[in-house]
């Protein structure tokens, strides 16, 4: 039986409200109506790109495309990752062990976009009602530098939300690093990056299908990360439920000496405590509902000697 939960809008209001797009519309010298129509276009176009036969090349550099992503995809992807944390005893045990031993949990999300994985982990921790303080130190890595504004707003508001929800024991710190993890420079400069990529958990959620093919540098980059990772570190891979992505994850994990869990499948929908109606006027103005369901594969890899 599902327990009754407080209403929860995973996306902080400052990142997605009816006013954000007005600022963008003014900057682009277009009307509010035109901005909404472009957001709708991005929603349709991105869906086609993700279903297409080649690398999607989603135009995240365009602020209205980022709004479309926040509006249409982030809540569902964040809920999906939260549910995986809920379901994976292995991840929960790992977090508990670190919480009890050092009280600072270091997580790195590659291709984390606006901070979807931070929203997921924060929601999961909030529901666990921790009693001892925990610092969540979160590094977001993405090739699109423009995500940094959303990331900062989202981190600030998630911190505020956690302290106002009677759960002040979790504080969030962290950083944003712009790296194309499938580039030669990412590999060549690996030893020069600060911070050092020594994290307890690494998350790769919907980045492999976006790289799509020609994984040469990504593969090498993940090997470097795995080499640097502490023994026992967890690697969470989440992807569309297609065998080609599962195969790619298995191949990379084998080369990185990761002990992979059994393939998990998540087919579910948003929590009942998150309703698209909370999006208010924006829902009417965009004229298309955000995604509320998913069908994903996930694996947890553990670094072993
Ligand atoms: C489909 S989005 C997933 C975002 C987030 N992980 C989520 O689940 O909502 C893919 C993200 O990966 C990033 N990305 C794609 N290729 C990348 C690369 N080569 N290096 C770093 N980031 C990349 C994109 O900029 C985008 O933010």
Detailed description of the structure:
45% of the residues lie in helices and 19% in strands. Strands 1, 2, 3, 4, 5, 6, 7 and 8 form an 8-stranded mixed beta sheet that branches. The longest helix is centred in the first third of the chain and has 20 residues, at 32-51. The protein has one domain (75-303): Rossmann fold (3-Layer(aba) Sandwich), CATH 3.40.50.150. The protein has helices at 20-27, 32-51, 63-72, 74-87, 89-101, 116-128, 147-164, 184-188, 208-211, 216-228, 243-255, 281-286; strands at residues 104-110, 134-142, 170-178, 201-205, 234-240, 258-260, 264-269, 293-303. It has 12 helices and 8 strands. By secondary structure, the chain is of the alpha/beta class. Helix 7 links the parallel strand 2 and strand 3. S-adenosylmethionine (SAM) is lined by residues 60, 73-74, 77, 111-113, 116, 142-144, 180-182, 205-207, 210-211. S-adenosylmethionine binds at residues 60, 73-74, 77, 111-113, 116, 142-144, 180-182, 205-207, 210-211.
Q: Rounded to an integer, what's the Rg over CA atoms?
A: 19 Å
Approximately what portion of the residues adopt beta-strand conformation?
Answer: 15-25%
| Termini separation | 41 Å
Bound molecules: S-adenosylmethionine
Reading off the top of the CATH hierarchy, the class is best stated as: Alpha Beta
Overall shape: it is: globular
> CATH superfamily assignment?
Vaccinia Virus protein VP39
In CATH terms, what is the fold-level topology? Rossmann fold
Fraction of residues in helices? 40-55%
Structural class computed from helices and strand pairing = alpha/beta
Major sheet details? 8 strands, mixed
Care to count the β-strands? 8
CATH architecture: 3-Layer(aba) Sandwich
Low-confidence stretches: 1-8
Kindly report the average pLDDT value.
91
């Amino acid at each position: 039986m599902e327990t009754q939960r407080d209403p929860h809008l995973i996306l902080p209001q400052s990142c997605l409200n009816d006013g954000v797009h007005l600022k963008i519309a003014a900057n682009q010298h277009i009307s509010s109506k035109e901005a909404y129509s472009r957001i709708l276009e991005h929603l349709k176009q991105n869906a086609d790109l993700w279903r297409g036969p080649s690398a999607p090349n989603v135009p995240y550099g365009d602020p209205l495309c980022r709004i479309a992503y926040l509006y249409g995809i982030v809540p569902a992807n964040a809920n999906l990752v939260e549910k995986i944390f809920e379901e994976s005893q292995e991840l929960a045990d790992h977090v508990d062990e670190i919480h009890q031993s050092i009280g600072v949990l270091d997580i790195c999300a590659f291709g984390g976009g606006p901070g979807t994985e931070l929203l997921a982990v924060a929601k999961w921790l909030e529901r666990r009602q921790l009693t001892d303080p925990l610092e969540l130190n979160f590094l977001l890595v993405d090739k699109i530098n423009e995500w940094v504004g959303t990331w900062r707003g989202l981190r600030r508001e998630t911190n505020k939300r956690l302290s106002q929800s009677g759960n002040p024991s979790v504080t969030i710190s962290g950083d944003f690093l712009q790296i194309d993890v499938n580039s030669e420079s990412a590999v060549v400069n690996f030893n020069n990056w600060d911070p050092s990529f020594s994290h307890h958990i690494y998350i790769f959620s919907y980045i492999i299908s976006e790289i799509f093919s020609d994984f040469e540098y990504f593969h090498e980059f993940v090997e470097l990360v795995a080499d640097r990772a502490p023994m026992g570190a967890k690697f969470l891979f989440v992807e569309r439920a297609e065998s080609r992505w599962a195969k790619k994850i298995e191949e990379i994990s084998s080369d990185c000496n990761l002990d992979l869990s059994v393939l998990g499948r998540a087919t579910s929908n948003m929590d009942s405590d998150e309703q698209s109606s909370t999006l208010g006027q924006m829902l009417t103005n965009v004229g298309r509902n955000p995604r509320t369901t998913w069908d994903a594969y996930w694996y947890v890899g553990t670094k072993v000697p």
